[in-house]
Design a protein that fits this description.
The structure is a homodimer.
Chain A (H helix, E strand, L loop, with lengths): L9 H4 L2 H12 L3 E2 L2 H6 L14 E4 L3 H14 L3 E4 L16 E4 L6 E5 L4 E4 L5 H8 L4 E2 L10 H6 L7 H4 L2 H4 E7 L5 E3 L13 H5 L8 E8 L1 E2 L3 E8 L3 H13 L6 E5 L1 H11 L8 E8 L1 H16 L7 E3 L2 H12 L1 H5 L7 E8 L5 H14 L6 E4 L4 E8 L4 H20 L18 H5 L1 H14 L14
Parallel strand pairs in A: 2-4, 3-4
Antiparallel strand pairs in A: 1-2, 5-6, 6-10, 7-11, 8-9, 8-10, 12-14, 12-15, 13-14, 13-17, 16-18, 17-18
Helix pairs in contact in A: 2-4, 10-12, 10-15, 15-16
GO molecular function (chains A, B): D-lactate dehydrogenase (cytochrome) activity; D-lactate dehydrogenase (NAD+) activity; FAD binding
EC number (chains A, B): 1.1.2.4
Family (chains A, B): Belongs to the FAD-binding oxidoreductase/transferase type 4 family.
């Protein structure tokens, strides 16, 4: 029985009214159709339009997820997994309507295996809550995108953040996933061993798949011991290039820096205003070193020597935990700090990633573009991996301003791709960056991605209109 | 035109005579059909039977590979990529005949980007030659399976080795791959940026796929700066459990140990005999620490304190490079060292991997089994990751001895899986471990792996009869 619903395109949207009836029968008040709740479950973070789903379903467990997947499959209705809604490229929009499957109630920490340095959690656990729960066991999970995202969302966008240069990205820190596939099967991609060669890497298939291949309902993560000693600090540079050259030499010399973050002079000014940092308004690196007491100190000294050879000012360390926290809070508050730069505008964050040797060129050409186009766009970067962000202040109500912002972002991506880089280092594709994948990967690679999508989701019910949009 | 060839099963082996005619026309003397060459290109490392291909083709470049893939597709003939033939589970056997595609002549180092800490190579480059080429630039590639394997083979089996505890496995160190797909498309899975969220992780799809999804013709690898200071050494323990508990505490305390290798007392005795190490014949850890001078020393001290609390003897460091090299050469020569333990027998290596907390139990129960079954089987392990090997001395000419060895290996795998571990940490599945995948992963997960295989290789020409054997 296929009855077209007025709100959705029949070919892609399926029979929503029949699906909603079945959902209400099966899940009762876990199904919510209020317009406000639906709008909150679509894109709210960027210039992309808000495209709400037809209904939101709150899942309590894997069984609920199976029920929803089964009904969406039966009636051909789109299904969009939802964590905290902090993604930046329209990942949670519902361009063809359908169901937003809210996993925030699946927030149990199922097991912490301290001796094995791993834990098993549900996808709705957020990174801050996870770390609060781990702290008294001397453990932590290092991946920290700016927002307090859900771990399910972080898996799905292949998130990273400030610690990735030392601890890797989500790709490197997920041991196993439980996933409900579009065909209704519940699979576990791997066991708890820290490494395996036992067949295809299904774990990495779902890391970064943005909910287009299945719904993650359980995550096994690698954990780390909290380092004995943490040395943090800041270091000013006369130019972006000096800072970038210092980064390259530090990484190349094998200093296992835990964080090495670039803030351009515009961002430093903004952070000075927001967090009262009192820093000179030139490009800075914010750094952190983890290790034994002498080891961490020696890393910091080695960095300071390299920096001095690149005309840096003094490395000022933040030794007390409260000073260190203040520093990183300021870094994580970059988004908030820029809002006063253009009152009323929206802060639209975008990222690219290039090989290290091209970083200085890419950042400097991007800054020239910002200046020439008359934009306000501070730059911050996880520069140890060649990854940086611009935070564009856009008046989204003004079509001309939005068009200029889009042009700027397209040029930034083209520049990164021309330097053998990628259109996104950690934000993901969603809707916003689909248009760049052909230029980045080529037609045959995109075809291979489509082959994957079709093989696992032949009906195209899982988060349709994202990544490869078959 | 499909004409059955006597040597191969027509359904699975395709039309070999037509394929060989086409190959000879296209590639001339790159096609070799001598029985001796064919036998060398099948399994020669274990108790598994040698199942030679019908022909060997030596590829010079990606174009040759495309030609071979095209002809194999046209005539439905199996195609088995071949590097150095050092894999341990029958990966290169040709159970349905067909073509062994020898990639050893594709051994060019195409680019070393020292500033980016990456390189681009062909799949026939071996790990030792790569490191010889990198050394004078102060760089190295850390992954070191015992054999001097080709990088293409190491990608395909998701290899690791002694450094994985610090530097990860092949999964963590491949940035991009060029692959000829069964449909003839040549794809590049990613660009050279150190991280990306731009779509599905096709790179990890081919890492560990054992040549069943396509032929790798180019590899972009992450490189590392050679550490300023390397401290290596050995430490004796009264029992396996004391050694394992020391490993857990060392990892948990965040000491970034670069190598932490277990040798049981049987292996120590064998290595003493082979390499004149003169060690006390008790379980040992062999260790290495990388860092700044004080940092590496402090790591070693921290380890020694932890070890002392677990009844260890003194940590004896090997400070001179020649002593350090002798130590690791002895570790890598474990295979050769055990041959005198049972003259005439074959050394059959197998591996499992379990969560760290189960390592001592798993190793000790395995040792009990060795004793009770009257086997000779020294144990070595990359224990920082919970991964260990037995080297079984098997008289492969004696069916009873082979049967006993197989029973022992099956029990070792069952034990690992019961402890939430995997049937192989780094050797791969090949033919030898296919029978364990259902127990390890469950039927639905195996189905998902088969979905992948069918999507990319619907004709089942790529290394058929391996991993999931659709």
């Amino acid at each position: 029985m296929v009855v077209a619903d007025a709100k959705v395109e029949p070919e892609l949207g399926g029979d929503f009214s029949a699906a909603s009836e079945a959902l209400l029968n099966a899940l009762g008040n876990k199904v919510v159709m209020s317009a406000a709740i639906c709008a909150q479950h679509a894109n709210i973070t960027t210039y992309l339009p808000n495209e709400p789903p037809d209904a939101v379903v709150y899942a309590n467990d894997t069984r609920d997820v199976q029920t929803v997947v089964g009904i969406c499959r039966e009636f051909g209705v789109p299904l969009i997994p939802f964590g905290t809604g902090t993604s930046l490229e329209g990942h949670v929009n519902a361009p063809y309507g359908g169901i937003s499957l809210d996993l925030s109630r699946m927030d149990r920490i199922l097991a912490v295996h301290a001796d094995d340095l791993d834990c098993v959690i549900e996808p709705g656990v957020t990174r801050k809550r996870l770390n609060e729960n781990l702290r008294d066991q001397g453990l932590f999970f290092p991946i920290d995108p700016g927002a307090d995202a859900s771990l399910g969302g972080m898996v799905s966008t292949r998130a990273s953040g400030t610690n990735a240069v030392r601890y890797g990205t989500m790709k490197d820190n997920v041991l196993a996933l439980k996933v409900v596939l579009p065909n209704g099967d519940v699979i576990t991609t791997a066991r708890r061993a820290r490494k395996t060669s036992a067949g295809y890497d299904l774990t990495r298939l779902f890391v970064g798949a943005e909910g287009t291949l299945g719904v993650i309902t359980e995550i096994t993560l690698r954990l780390y011991g909290i380092p004995e000693t943490i040395v943090a600090g800041v270091c000013p540079f006369p130019t972006i290039r000096d800072a970038c050259d210092t980064v390259i030499e530090t990484i190349q010399s094998g200093v296992p820096v835990a964080r090495i973050e670039l803030l351009d002079e515009v961002q430093v000014r903004a952070s000075n205003g927001y967090a009262k940092l009192g820093l000179p308004e030139t490009p800075h690196l914010f750094l952190e070193f983890h290790g034994t007491p002498a080891g961490a100190r020696e890393q910091a000294e080695r960095f300071a020597e390299i920096a001095a050879a690149h005309s840096a000012g003094a490395f000022v360390s933040a030794d007390r935990p409260e000073d260190r926290n203040r520093l990183w809070q300021a870094r994580h508050d970059a988004y908030w700090s820029v809002l006063p730069l253009r009152p009323g505008a929206k802060a639209v964050a975008t990222d690219v990633c290039v090989p290290l040797s091209r970083l200085a060129d890419c950042v400097m050409e991007t800054k020239r573009d910002i200046e020439e186009m008359g934009l306000i766009a501070p730059i911050v970067g996880h520069v140890g991996d060649g990854n940086f962000h611009t935070t564009l202040m856009v008046d989204v109500a003004d079509p001309a301003d939005t068009a200029k912002a889009k042009l700027f972002m397209a040029r930034m991506v083209e520049r990164a791709i021309a330097m053998d880089g990628t259109c996104t280092g950690e934000h993901g594709v969603g809707q916003g960056k689909m248009k760049y994948l052909a230029a980045e990967h080529g037609a045959a690679t995109l075809d291979a991605m489509r082959t994957l999508k079709r093989a696992f989701d032949p009906q195209n019910i899982m988060n349709p209109g994202k990544i490869v949009a078959v």
